[in-house]
Every structure is written in C-alpha cells, then in structure tokens.
Design goal:
mainly beta, Jelly Rolls, Immunoglobulin-like, seven-stranded antiparallel β-sheet, 1 helix, disordered N terminus
Length: 334
C-alpha cells in the first residue's frame, strides 16, 4: 500500500497590528442601498439589477469621478491584513473615444479614502493627485498597445508601490471573472488572483510597498468610474518620429456580482493532521475548505465547506487518493 504524504499550507497570516473586525458580503439579492451602499458623482452609472441580482455598471471617463461605495467603518493602513473579492463581467468596452484622449483608460474596483476621493483635487489621470488607493485596474487595448491588468497601491503622499503591468492580458466581453485581492502586512505585499469559471487567468504580478513608501489610509470599498480630466493631452514625439498622445478615455458596460471584504484575515492553526484529515483552530465569520493537489499547479476542493468556530474543527477529504497528496486550507467569506 502506498503512503499518502500530507503537506499543509495556510493562505493567510495574522497582522501584528489589527484593525477592527470588519466582514462585508454583498450578493445583490436585494437593494444594496438597504445594506449601506451609496453612490457619488453621476449616480446614473450604477443600477441595481433586481432580476439578475447584480450591479449594472457604466464606466464612462467623460463623466466626473463617480463611485458606488460602502464605508468600512475603520481605516486600514499597511499594518493591517485584509481581503477583497468580487465577481465582474465586462459586456462591451471602447477606449480612445475623443481626439484629445485617444489612448486607453482604466476600469477600477478596490479601496479608497472616501474623503479624499470625493474631493475636487482627486485626479487619477495626472499620476500624482490621487492619494490612498488600493485597487484592481483593467486597461483595454488601443492603437497597437496590449490590454493589461494592474493592482496599484498609492500612498497618502502619492507614492506608487512597486507594481508591474500584466501584459498582454485581455479580459473577454461576456466572460464571468472572479478576483481575490489579499494584502498581508508581514511582507507588505498585495497578492491578486483572477479566475474564470474556476480556471486561473494570469498569473498577476504582486504589488509590494518597498523602500520609501510612506503609507496608505483607505476606508471604503468602491467601484470606480474615474474622470479622464487632468491628463496630459500634449502630442509627444517618439524616437522613430511617430507621435502619440498619452491621455486616454474609456466607455464600458458590465456588471459586478458578489463582493466580499474581511479584516483581519483568519489565523489558521493546524492542530493535528493525518492522511486526508486536518484539524484546525477555526475563526468565525469565515468559511474553510480543504484543497488537494498532486503537482502544485492545480488545486481541488476535497472537503465540504465548513463555517468557522471558536475552537477546533476538522476538514476531511471526502475521497482521498491512494497515491501521495498535498493539502492546504482555504478561507473564504460567506
């Protein structure tokens, strides 16, 4: 008989400094306004679709900064662990709509500082007038440039964390995507995963704060339709003699589905382990699932999702293999 080897990995670590416990889950099964969601700017860009149980969103850069948002009730900094997850779909998207703004511009979902983001001086397009941002951005392709995804963190002093653009990465119209953004304070890193129907998309590059980054202060979950105003609309000449205007614009329609936010992240303590069984110290407000892999390339759910408890709980592989297997524990918000 072959022996199954057992390995365990926790997805989360605990922050040395914890914020207030906050857990927000929005399924859009009923009017989100009754759950504390609000709209700012051009409120017509956001519409709750009661039939499809999602939020219909228009990202229109020709309009002023507009947000569909929910206050966290606390302020997060680089010392706090947190996770934001959301489902979304882009139905149609066009960039470079105006002659003065012929390049690309972003669709955004993430975390903001509400007081700053709703002020007159908050200009995302200038590159130095949009403080305290942690978000997921998608830039559609334009004029020979590939589409890309980025996950910027901008400090209170408008410093950018170390970030890369995932290029090329095109998000297809009509496809359902699920994004999970997890920030861990111990390594000051934002790790983001993107999937479609359970199949990974990417991978996406991590964002790290790095030396010289002062700090961020965010207090609001927000779906963001940014104004294109404030960009450089000058004509620039490339080395080959061609010209380009970097200012961009976008018009897109889509939907945002289930959104979940949690802080602090759960601490998963492994109390005991045997082939196919893991006993952990759970945390309330989270759902735990045992995952299994044989190659560390793909993971499969192998236990029944279980609600966390104040105490020990056991996750069991319902169909353990006869060969070796490696396990990890995943935590999700309800």
């Amino acid at each position: 008989m072959k022996i199954r080897s057992l390995a365990l990995a926790s997805l989360f670590v605990v922050s040395a400094v914890s914020a207030s416990t906050v857990s927000i889950t929005e399924n859009f099964t009923h009017d989100p306004a009754t759950d504390g969601w609000q709209a700012f700017g051009d409120t017509n860009l956001f519409h709750w679709d009661s039939a499809n149980q999602n939020l219909a969103v228009t990202w229109d850069s020709s309009q002023p900064n507009s947000y569909f948002y929910h206050p966290l009730g606390t302020t997060l900094t680089s010392t706090n662990n947190f996770m934001l997850a959301f489902d979304f779909q882009i139905n149609d998207i066009t960039s470079g709509l105006e002659s003065d703004y012929p390049s690309t511009f972003q669709l955004a979902i993430g975390l903001l500082n509400n007081g700053e983001a709703t002020g007159n001086g908050f200009i995302i397009g200038s590159g130095y007038q949009a403080a305290d941002v942690v978000e997921f951005d998608y830039f559609p392709a334009f004029s020979g440039y590939n589409a890309s995804v980025s996950t910027p963190i901008i400090s209170s002093e408008n410093n950018f964390a170390n970030i890369g653009f995932d290029v090329p990465l095109t998000l297809s119209p009509g496809v359902h995507y699920h994004a999970v953004m997890t920030y861990t304070a111990i390594n000051q890193t934002l790790h983001t995963t993107l999937s479609s129907n359970g199949v990974p998309v990417g991978p996406l590059q991590d964002t790290t704060l790095g030396a010289g980054f002062d700090d961020f202060n965010v207090d609001t979950i927000s779906i963001n339709s940014y104004s294109q105003a404030g960009q450089d609309t000058s004509v620039h000449t490339n080395a080959d003699g061609s010209t380009v205007i970097y200012a961009g614009s976008v018009l897109a329609h889509g939907t945002v589905g289930k959104m979940s936010f949690g802080t602090p992240l759960p601490v998963v303590n492994v109390l005991a382990a045997a082939p196919g069984n893991v006993q952990i110290g759970g945390t309330t407000n989270w759902i735990f699932t045992l995952e299994r892999t044989a190659d560390f390339q793909s993971w499969t759910d192998v236990s029944v999702p279980a609600s966390g408890v104040n105490g020990a709980m056991t996750l069991t592989d319902t169909n353990p293999p006869t060969d070796k297997a490696f396990y990890r524990v995943r935590a999700d918000l309800p």
